[in-house]
């Protein structure tokens, strides 16, 4: 019988966001976005614990008031992985899943599938796992807000980019483009290593933290997902999320 890995979810939550400041505290049909995301992670029942980790008193107090587990960051952090590394340093865990605070519709199947790779043959070669979903629309492929990923034959990530990769020089080749969905499952040591490693040029240029893992030789297993990625990056995204919850209530 396979040993069960102690697994937690961490939701990094900054109040400031360059494109949509304060988005995690925006009302989403009666609850802030961050609470919707926290409840969605809890509802999966896949985790020993679910935590929000934040540098904001407002978010901290909001999660506390809702009965959630929340950790206050002690230092300034430039990305979610650094924030998580500080929070898990003294926790007795095997796997930590980074759940994006602005993705309140993250579903149970996606989380289960990304955790499953750590129980399969060859799992010892995996430092972290993440999700990718096919995108077909040219505008989505070319949108720099959508991070694209290319993989090898075993679905290990080769590179992430805001540019369309691969570049379609030969239009006759049938290529599927994949969007990176922002759920990561890390071995604890991988995220601790990340926080100690300086940012290098490729990550700095693209502003994609997953690239740091690749630049330092970590192996990222990508898992296929056919559910759409619904993140809240703009006020328009928030309106669409409100409509989704209204539909869910009716059904």
From TrEMBL:
Reported function: Activates KDO (a required 8-carbon sugar) for incorporation into bacterial lipopolysaccharide in Gram-negative bacteria.
The name this protein goes by in its record: 3-deoxy-manno-octulosonate cytidylyltransferase
Main location: cytoplasm
Family: Belongs to the KdsB family.
Reaction(s) the record says it catalyses: 3-deoxy-alpha-D-manno-oct-2-ulosonate + CTP = CMP-3-deoxy-beta-D-manno-octulosonate + diphosphate
Subcellular location: Cytoplasm
Entries under Gene3D superfamilies matching the protein: Spore Coat Polysaccharide Biosynthesis Protein SpsA, Chain A
InterPro entries xrefs: Cytidylyl_trans, KdsB, Nucleotide-diphossugar_trans
Record keywords: Cytoplasm, Lipopolysaccharide biosynthesis, Nucleotidyltransferase, Transferase
GO MF annotations in UniProt: 3-deoxy-manno-octulosonate cytidylyltransferase activity
């Amino acid at each position: 019988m396979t040993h069960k890995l102690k697994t937690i979810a961490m939701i990094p939550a900054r109040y400031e966001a360059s494109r949509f400041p304060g988005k995690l505290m925006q009302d989403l049909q009666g609850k802030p976005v961050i609470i919707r995301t926290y409840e969605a992670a809890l509802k999966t029942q896949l985790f020993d614990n679910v935590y929000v980790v934040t540098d904001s008193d407002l978010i901290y107090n909001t999660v506390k008031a809702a009965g959630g587990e929340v950790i206050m960051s002690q230092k300034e952090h430039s990305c979610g992985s650094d924030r998580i590394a500080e929070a898990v340093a003294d926790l007795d865990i095997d796997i930590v899943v980074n759940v994006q605070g602005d993705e309140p519709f993250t579903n149970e199947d996606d989380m289960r599938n990304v955790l499953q790779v750590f129980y399969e043959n060859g799992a010892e070669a995996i430092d972290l796992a993440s999700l990718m979903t096919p995108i077909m629309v040219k505008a989505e492929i070319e949108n720099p807000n959508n991070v694209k990923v290319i993989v090898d034959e075993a679905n290990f990530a080769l590179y992430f980019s805001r540019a369309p990769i691969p570049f379609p020089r030969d239009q006759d080749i049938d290529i599927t483009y994949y969007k990176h969905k922002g759920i990561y499952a890390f071995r604890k040591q991988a995220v601790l290593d990340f926080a100690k490693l300086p940012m290098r040029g490729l990550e700095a240029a693209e502003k994609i933290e997953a690239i740091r893992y690749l630049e330092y030789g970590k192996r990222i297993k990508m898992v296929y997902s056919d559910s759409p990625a619904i993140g809240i990056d703009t006020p328009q995204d928030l309106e669409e999320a409100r409509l989704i919850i209204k539909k869910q209530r009716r059904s």
